[in-house]
Amino acid sequence: MKKIIKFVAYFVGSLLLAFVGLLAYVALRGIPSYTPEPVNLKVEITPERVAHGAKLSSVLCGVCHGNDKNILAGKLLVDIPKEFGTIYAANITQHPQTGIGKWTDGEIARLLRTGVRPDGQYIPNYMPKFVNMSDEDLASIIAYLRSDLPAVQAYDLKQTQSTPSFLVKLLCNFVMKPNPMPQQPIIQPDTTDIVRLGRYLVAGRYDCYPCHSADFTKINEVEPEKSLGYLGGGNMLYNLEGKEMYTANITMDEETGIGTWTEEEFVNTLRYGKRKDGTLLKYPMLPYPVMTETEAKAIFAYLKTVPKIKNQVKKNL
Ligand code: HEC
Ligand code: HEC
C-alpha cells in the first residue's frame, strides 16, 4: 500500500513539475518570433487603387486602427475579449518612427497575409490576417496607406504596447502560427460566378468568418471553411460599454440561422444595418455602406451553399 502511495505521489509530483516547467517556458518565451519570408513587391499607386483601398480600409482597418479623428494612429481595443489581454492597435500612419513610414510594400503585404512583422514578431489573432485577399485588393490597401489622404499622414504618436495574456502566449506557442505567403497569384473572382465571388467576399476580402464562426482561437486562416463552426455564429465579443455580444448564425438553418430571410432583407441588413423587424444591427456588427448591391447578393448566394449549422445563439439585448 505504502509503495503505491509513494508511486502516486512521485507521479503527481513529476506531472506538477512538468506543468510548472511548461508555464515558466511559455511565460519566459512569450510570443515566438519568426524569420520573415522575403517578399518582393512594389505597388504602383494609381488613383483607382487609392480610392478602392480607402473603401476597403474604412470597413477593414478603421474600426481598430482609427482614432477619434479617423486617423489611423491606433487605440486601445475595448471589444477584444479580456482573456486575450490589453490590446492596442498600432499606429499605421506614415510616420517614420511611430508609424509604418519606413516599411516596404513587401513588408506590409507580408504582415497582412502572414502576421509577421519585419522584426520577426508575430501578431496573434486579435488582428485579422488577409491570407486569401486578392493581390489587387491587397495592392489597393497598400496604395491607400501610401497615399496623401489625411487618415494616413504621418501622425506622431507612440502607441502603447499591447500586453497579451498568458493564454495568448500559450496559444502562440502551440496553436496559432503565421500563415505561409501564398505561392500563386490570387485573382479576384468576377460576377460571372456569383457564388465564387460571394465566397471570396466572406473569406477573402471582408473577413466575415472569424467573427461569425464559433471561436477566435479555432479559426483556420488558410482554409477558412475548416474553422470551428464555420459561419454558425456564437463567438463572443464586447460592445463599447463592455457588454458581451454574441455573433449571429449566418448559415441558412431555418430555425437558428437566416434560412427564412429573403435576398432583399439580407442585402438591406448588410448594407444599411436594418433588419426586417426594423431593429438595427448592434456594434460590433457594423453595416457595410461601401459594399455594392451585387456584392451583397453574391454573399447571400454563397451563404446558401454553406453547410447549415443548428446553433441557437444568445440574443443580444
Ligand atoms: C480587430 C482589430 C484590427 C483590425 C481589423 C486590423 N488591425 Fe492591424 N493591428 C491590430 C492590432 C491589435 C495590432 C498591434 C498588435 C500588437 O500589439 O501586437 C495591429 C498591427 C498592425 C500593423 C503593424 C504595425 C506595427 O508597427 O507593428 C499593421 C501594418 C497593421 N496592423 C495594418 C492593418 C491594416 C492595413 C488593416 C486593414 C486591412 C488592419 N491592420 C486591420 C488590430 C487590427
Ligand atoms: C467584428 C465582428 C463581425 C464581423 C467582421 C462581421 N460580423 Fe456580422 N455580426 C456580428 C455580431 C456581433 C452580430 C450580432 C449583432 C446584433 O445582435 O445586432 C452580427 C450580425 C450579423 C447579421 C444579422 C443576423 C441576424 O440574425 O440578425 C448578419 C446578416 C451578419 N452579421 C452578416 C455578416 C457578414 C456577411 C459579414 C461580412 C461581410 C459580417 N457579418 C461581418 C459580428 C461581426
TrEMBL record:
GO MF entries: electron transfer activity; heme binding; metal ion binding
Keyword Protein transport: no
InterPro entries assigned to the protein according to its UniProt record, in alphabetical order: Cyt_c-like_dom, Cyt_c-like_dom_sf, Cytochrome_c-type_DH
Domain of life: Bacteria
Pfam families reported in the protein's UniProt record: Cytochrome_CBB3
UniProt xrefs under Gene3D superfamilies: Cytochrome c-like domain (1.10.760.10)
Keywords annotated in UniProt: Heme, Iron, Membrane, Metal-binding, Transmembrane, Transmembrane helix
TM segment ranges: 7-28
Chain ranges of the Cytochrome c domain: 48-149, 193-307
Keyword Iron: yes
SUPFAM superfamilies noted in UniProt: Cytochrome c
Protein name: Cytochrome c, mono-and diheme variants
Organism of origin: Thermoflexibacter ruber
Lineage summary: Bacteria, Pseudomonadati, Bacteroidota, Cytophagia, Cytophagales
